[in-house]
Amino acid sequence: MSDTMKLTTWNVNSLNVRLPQVLDWLAANPVDVLCLQELKLPDERFPLEAFQEIGYHAHWAGQKTYNGVALISREPGTDVQRNLPNYDDPQQRLLAATYPSPDGPVRVICAYCPNGQSLDSDKYVYKLEWFAALHEWLEKELQQYPRLAILGDYNIAPADQDVYDPAKWVDDVLVSPPERAAFERLLALGLHDAYRLFEQSGSPFTWWDYRRFAFRRDAGLRIDHALLSDALKPRCTACDIDRDPRANEQPSDHAPVTATLSFS
């Protein structure tokens, strides 16, 4: 068993479109667990064989056209949980599984959190309800799995330093005080924003709109996060954003974020 474990989150914005990019990325970056969001395909169309051919296992929760999450891993996951058990929701947004490490089992959760659309939308109410249910469930998960990582597209920029132009985002989703408070409540459970554990240089953003040349202008937000439990925090040696895939032809609008754990 390796003494290093790499966990990555990547919203691929359609696995059907981006599958070759994901396979190429994994070939160049053989991480231990890749958490994918926005598969946008039903269960029966998940490309399991493509991942098996390069030596990976997979668990997934698909949905036609929208949402969908997957865990792509070197070792098969166990104790798989699909969606929040305490929130009745037809949208496929969460998948959890347990993986071996030298320290013992590591619980990895892949989350595609709701966007919210606008502050006066029913989808915003749904977003806050979903985060409240996530908080309630995670509190119990952390008791059962002290080594826990929850990675995904949170659709929340936690602070103004995670926004290219905070003034332009006032009174908008992704940055509203209730959303940021929901994120802080997750941290208060004993979770840690892996990216902020380190002094970072360069752009912190993980998402850039397809419009108005946002990536070229680096007009982005940091909304994709890796949160680590107290037990995993001292094991984290790096957290990096890979901007290169965002420059691909027909890219996802998100970049992969990788947290590296060292058990040596």
UniProtKB/TrEMBL annotation:
Record-listed Mg(2+) binding positions:
11, 38, 153, 155, 253-254
Region annotation (Disordered) maps to 243-264
Does the entry feature the keyword Cell membrane, yes or no? no
Positions of the site: Transition state stabilizer?
155
Task: Return the cofactor note field.
Answer: Probably binds two magnesium or manganese ions per subunit.
- Its domain of life reads Bacteria
Among Gene3D superfamilies, the record links this protein to: Endonuclease/exonuclease/phosphatase
* Coiled-coil features, chain-numbered ranges: none
Instruction: Give yes or no: UniProt keyword Hydrolase.
Output: yes
Q: Which cofactor does it need?
A: Mg(2+); Mn(2+)
Q: Which UniProt keywords apply?
A: Hydrolase, Magnesium, Manganese, Metal-binding
Q: Where is this site: Interaction with DNA substrate?
A: 254
Q: Which family does it belong to?
A: Belongs to the DNA repair enzymes AP/ExoA family.
- What is the recorded name of this protein? Exodeoxyribonuclease III
Q: Which organism is it from?
A: Alcaligenes pakistanensis
